[in-house]
Design brief:
Layout lengths: L1 E6 L5 E6 L2 E4 L3 E3 L7 E2 L1 E5 L12 E5 L10 E5 L5 E5 L3 E2 L9 E14 L1 E3 L3 E9 L12 E2 L4 E4 L9 E4 L4 E4 L23 E4 L10 E3 L3 E9 L14 E9 L6 E9 L10 E8 L4 E4 L5 E4 L4 E3 L26 E8 L4 E6 L4 E8 L3 E7 L5 E7 L5 E10 L2 E2 L3 E2 L5 E3 L4 E9 L2 E10 L2
Parallel strand pairs: 3-7, 6-8, 9-13, 15-17, 27-29, 28-30, 29-31, 30-32, 34-37
Antiparallel strand pairs: 1-2, 4-6, 5-12, 7-11, 8-9, 9-10, 11-13, 14-20, 15-19, 16-17, 16-18, 18-20, 20-24, 21-22, 21-23, 23-24, 23-25, 25-26, 31-36, 32-33, 32-35, 36-37
């Protein structure tokens, strides 16, 4: 009988007797018979204190002979009958425990398991020794997913075995909406953030657009992705080569869309305008291992470089302000010096990748069209050289050449007093154009 000591809350120590715990260091082992009639690996031990198997009975034993994953492994105490030794409820332990190692197992009187007993077929036995589960893979973790998160499918339905990109923190975009191995699939034209995860939908259930999908079924690392369901590649991949997703950068310098030929197994040697995102490694003509991390590459005409996003250029006489990722956190101003405008209308252009500013001098009412090519704050100073107050009208605003429909201006209009200066602030983005004014500037 095993004796266990416990300390009570008041500090006293008492012995606790538990007849269910047994430690066996010397057992007889019989190797499995692997030709018909088959026989499981057998572990035998003699213990005069045991007269029957008891539910919850625990043994701590030294493995006498290797287990077998095809025909089973069984433990017998005295001559009470062989009971399978299993893990993960009722799975054969195979040879996962080395000879001489110590194994802790608990007897489950109602659980069934199978083993071979001098027969050509397995026998189902009620009662088994369940060992503590563990993962033998201690050096390689390959298939990764998020067990609790969900995303909303956007752009179109999600079909079987298709890779997806994350639109943002709430939505994913399937790279196509058909989920077949045909080489004529229509690829998505949606813009997405390439710095977020690439996901592989591992099941064959269709998820309709705007419905949620559990990310437990979307792996961000997987050892066997069938690329035929995502790209129109068929079986043309070259084995033992990396696979890249080819992207076109959008006007904001951050979002991307798939290029017309959206995959490649070679990196560019000249500036072709594309960004190449590393997906993984092709191990045959249509399977890839999807990597969990996806560096991006772009050729600048001189060399191939890691791409983090479009970084505005900085004049050589101005210090750059960058964060760790290489993005500019402040824009330098590009100023256009004061010019006199005599026409009734003028177009003011603010360049890309900079904060723009300009000054003009007028003497009469004027209409202004703003051509904005950046997402920064821009300024226009209007000096009135006339003898009377003038009105300023915003005729139109374009952003990267596209007309902005929602233009927000001061409700009381924009005026410049005689001899005064008015400052206009202009910001344009996906929500519209926002124009503010103040006309109290003076020398």
């Amino acid at each position: 009988m095993a004796v266990r000591k416990i300390q009570l809350p008041d500090g006293t120590v008492e012995n606790v007797n538990d007849s269910r715990l047994h430690i066996y260091r010397t057992l007889t082992g019989t190797a499995a018979v692997t030709s018909s009639p088959y026989y499981c690996s057998r572990w035998d031990v003699t213990d005069d204190t045991v007269t029957a198997y008891e539910d919850g009975m625990v043994v701590w034993l030294e493995v006498p002979v290797a287990g077998n994953g095809s025909y089973g492994t069984c433990l017998q105490i005295n001559s009470l009958g062989y009971k399978p030794v299993v893990y993960n409820v009722n799975t054969m332990i195979s040879s996962r425990y080395s000879v001489g190692s110590m194994v802790l197992a608990c007897y489950n009187a109602t659980q069934t398991a199978t083993a071979y007993f001098n027969s050509g077929s397995a026998t189902t036995v009620t009662g088994c020794w369940q060992v503590m589960d563990y993962d033998t893979n201690t050096t390689s973790i390959s298939n990764l997913y998020h067990p609790r998160a969900t995303r909303v499918v956007t752009g179109g339905q999600l079909k079987r075995y298709v890779m997806c990109v994350e639109a943002d923190e709430t939505g994913i975009i399937p790279l196509n909406y058909t989920g077949t191995t045909a080489t004529t699939k229509t690829m998505t034209t949606e813009a997405f953030d390439p710095t977020r995860e690439i996901l592989y939908y591992t099941t064959n259930a269709t998820v309709a657009e705007n419905n949620s999908v559990a990310l437990s079924g979307c792996f961000y690392s997987n050892t066997s992705v069938d690329a035929r369901y995502t790209f129109n590649s068929g079986t043309t991949l070259t084995a033992n080569r990396e696979l890249y997703m080819v992207l076109d950068v959008q006007s904001d310098g951050r979002l991307c869309k798939l290029a017309s030929t959206p995959w490649s197994q070679t990196l560019p040697t000249t500036d072709d305008g594309h960004v190449y995102l590393l997906l993984g490694y092709a191990y045959d003509t249509y399977h890839i291992e999807l990597y969990p991390h996806h560096p991006m590459f772009k050729h600048d005409g001189t060399s191939l470089n890691i791409w983090h996003g479009t970084i505005p250029s900085v004049p050589t006489n101005v210090s750059s302000f960058t964060n760790d990722a290489g993005y500019l956190t402040e824009y330098d101003f590009k100023h256009t010096e004061n010019t006199t405008v005599s026409d009734e209308s003028v177009t003011i252009t603010f360049a890309a990748n900079t904060r723009g500013s300009q000054m003009i001098t007028v003497s009469a009412d004027i209409g202004i069209t703003f051509a904005v090519n950046n997402f920064s704050d821009n300024y226009l100073w209007i000096a009135n050289s006339g003898s009377a107050e003038i009105d300023v009208t915003v005729s139109a605003v374009t952003l990267d050449g596209t007309s902005v429909s929602d233009v927000y201006v001061p409700t009381d209009g924009i005026t410049v007093p005689a001899g005064g200066v008015c400052e206009l602030g202009i910001i344009a983005n996906s929500d519209g154009a926002f124009i503010t004014s103040r006309n109290d500037l003076a020398i």
